[in-house]
Specification:
Layout (H helix, E strand, L loop, with lengths): L2 E6 L4 H11 L4 E8 L10 E5 L5 H9 L9 E4 L21 H22 L8 E6 L15 H22 L5 E7 L2 E2 L16 E2 L1 H13 L8 E4 L4 E2 L2
Parallel strand pairs: 1-2, 1-4, 2-3, 4-5, 5-6, 6-9, 7-8
Antiparallel strand pairs: 9-10
Helix pairs in contact: 1-5, 2-3, 3-4
The structure holds NADP nicotinamide-adenine-dinucleotide phosphate.
Length: about 240
């Protein structure tokens, strides 16, 4: 049976590279690409649907556009924010903390993905399925030695908790669903651009390389991995 996949955040560097990676996979029949802007043209195996993950009604409408009885073998959430062109930039110090920035970063990195879970979990296949969320190593509390980046770090820590919660609750109704967070490595993108100069060239991945590695991780997941966070190379990241 060929697979059906949803990519949410398909306009991003990693989201779009992940789509391209899946298009090369003969086992995949249909890819539903969800994005806020840059809606591409549909083709035989790619369907584009508009979504704003900060707006619950938009998520509901996006789901309504799916053909009846659509079931996903893989749902990949590639949305996220670290900075933007307005006023969001990772806090270097306590004095940089502001309620508006906290709200925006948590809205995109935590609340949006949580709502995606609410509406997309019922659409998971009853056989083996994976619901993967792009998280970040900086969301690990035990790995935090540098401090700073208050909103981004904490929003990813909270996302990891939500992923764990999904894994616990859904096990009761769908034993074959696997929920994971994925750390893509440091990947060249709009999100990483301001920080790429601090990264050794060999540690700055292309979105294509990161996507290929994450797909390998996804394909090797077992039921007992549900609720965990994994790096692009398969290493488990401790909470
Ligand atoms: N790049 C890295 O080094 C790195 C490292 C660790 C973790 N990550 C994580 O990987 C994920 C993807 O990052 P990226 O590097 O691919 O960044 P990116 O190119 O900036 O992509 C971010 C994506 O999020 C989407 N998005 C933001 N707000 C949205 C909203 N309200 N509704 C729908 N879509 C929304 C953007 O859509 P628009 O095109 O509409 O803006 C874009 O598709 C993020 O969760 C990030 O935290 C990245």
């Amino acid at each position: 049976m060929k697979k059906t996949v949803a990519i949410i955040g398909s306009s991003g560097a990693i989201g779009s590279a992940f789509c391209k990676c899946l298009l090369l996979d003969q086992s995949i029949e249909k890819i539903y690409k969800f994005a806020r802007n840059n809606i591409d043209k549909d083709s035989d195996n790619e369907i584009n649907i508009s979504i704003d993950i900060e707006d619950e009604d938009s998520i509901k409408k996006a789901i309504e556009e799916l053909p009846e009885n659509t079931r996903f073998d893989l749902i990949f959430v590639a949305t996220g924010i670290l900075h933007n062109d307005d006023n969001i930039f990772p806090e270097k110090s306590i004095k940089d903390i502001s309620i508006d920035k906290l709200k925006k970063v948590f809205m995109v990195n935590t609340f949006g993905p949580t709502l995606l879970g609410k509406y997309f979990i019922p659409l998971l296949n009853r056989e083996k399925s994976v619901f993967a969320f792009l998280s970040a190593r900086v969301g690990s509390i035990s790995d935090n030695v540098l401090g700073g980046w208050y909103s981004y770090r904490a929003s990813k820590t909270a996302l990891n908790q939500i992923i764990k919660n999904f894994s616990i609750e859904v096990k009761r109704s769908n034993q074959n669903a696997i929920f994971v967070g994925l750390q893509p490595g440091t990947v060249k993108s709009y999100l990483s651009k301001p920080f790429e100069k601090n990264v050794k060239p060999e540690n700055l991945f292309t979105p294509e390389y990161s996507s290929e590695k994450m797909l390998e991780v996804i394909n090797s997941l077992k039921i007992e991995d549900s609720g965990k966070i994994f790096s692009w190379d398969g290493e488990e990241i401790q909470p």
